[in-house]
Every structure is written in C-alpha cells, then in structure tokens.
Design brief:
Blueprint: E1 9-10, E2 13-16, E3 21-25, E4 30-35, E5 41-48, E6 50-55, E7 58-66, E8 69-76, E9 82-85, E10 89-90, E11 105-112, E12 115-124, H1 134-140, E13 142-150, E14 157-160, E15 183-189, E16 192-200, E17 205-213, E18 220-230
Antiparallel strand pairs: 1-2, 2-3, 3-4, 4-5, 6-7, 7-8, 8-9, 8-10, 11-12, 12-13, 13-14, 15-16, 16-17, 17-18
Length: 239
Amino acid sequence: MAERFAPARFPRGVADASRGRAFLRDQSGALVALDLTTGNVLWRTTVPMRPLLVCDGKVLAVRLAARHTLEVVILDAADGRELRISKPLIFPEWANVSLEDTTDFTLRVETKDGAVFLRWAARSRYRGGAAPSIKVLEAARRDAWGEARVDVDTGEVEELPGAVGDVPEAPSEEAPSSLSPDVLEQRDIGNKSFQLLTRNTAGGTVQMLVRAVHPDTGQVAWETIVDEVPVRRPKPPRP
C-alpha cells in the first residue's frame, strides 16, 4: 500500500524546492509567490487564499466561498492565473471555517499516487463567560471530521465516506522555538533556513518579511518585505 506524503512546508505556506519557489500568505491573506534564490516577489493574488500544495507546476489552494464553505482553486505556479475552481466543499453549519489552522478548524493535505487528499477537523466548545454546568458543556461540545479527494487536472472534489489516518490536530499554542526572538517561524529547505518575521516601522506600519539564512554561518542571503500594513490600534473604550 503506497504511503501518503505531506507537502514541503514553508513559513505560512508551502515550497517547491525543485523549481526554487515558495507560496505563502501575507498579512491580508493574499497568496504570494517568492523566488527562493533571490527573494523576489513574483506575483500575488487579489483575494485571500491558503496555499496547500505545489504539484506539476500548479498551486493547489483553498479560499472561503461562503461562511461554511471552501472551494479549491488551482493556480498556474508561474504567474498565478486561476486554471480551475472546484465545486464547493461544505462543512457543518456550526463549524467556524477558517483559512488559518485554529483550535476550531484544521486542514491538512496529503498526496498519494498523484491523488491529493484534504483532511479536515472542526470543533466547537463552550466559550461563555460564566462557569457552566456539565450539561451546558456537553451540549456545546461538537466534533466533526472528514476527507475529500481532489483531482488536480479537473478540479473535481470527491467527499470520501470515511476519514483515513489521524484526525488533524489543533495547532499548538506554544511559542515557536527559535534562535532569534523576532522569528515567528522557520523552515529548512535545501542549504538554507527561511525565516518569517514582522517588524514595526517608525511610520506606524507592520512589515512582514521573509529572510533566507545560511544555517552554518548565520549569514543572511537575502531579506524581502512581503507586505506592509497599518498598525491595528485598539478601539477606544466607550464613554
């Protein structure tokens, strides 16, 4: 029985080491393509979506089509053109579907013999203010999971009757371990480490940066500003 494989991870995205490219989400959620050799931004989408996999020159991503619905988008990895859009993948009405992995919703992708499988898990828990009774806790507790097979060539999505393998776990809330406290995430690809970090500017904006580092020497090969957005300031209290 053939083994399933997970895609090569990159901070906030996935990588295609054979073609020297990575695909990640910026602060607004748009998908951004990076050249791993130079750090140049090659293209970006105009709507939020999450890259899941790079396969045969195509990027498989998902985006929100409605409150409880995702659709799979297949993009040309060279220029970001939309090649195909799948039929909607509909989740339970109570599910808090998100493009980010959260404690409420988690999405994983695997490949096997050229097929792509999406595994998901949704959770709902009581989040009221007062201490609830056991009955209230149990009534608020909901769990669901499932799996779908995606045809990259046609965009067809087939929901499978039973999930295979482990249910995707919620992300850990622990702070990432890193040599540098300003690094949010790091992935090693080939002979470089790729770091994701943010930086506040004097102009009142937050920059998202990707940095390529030679791990043996710590020398920075390149650093790219992926995007820059205004600082979100808390709303003033009501009088």
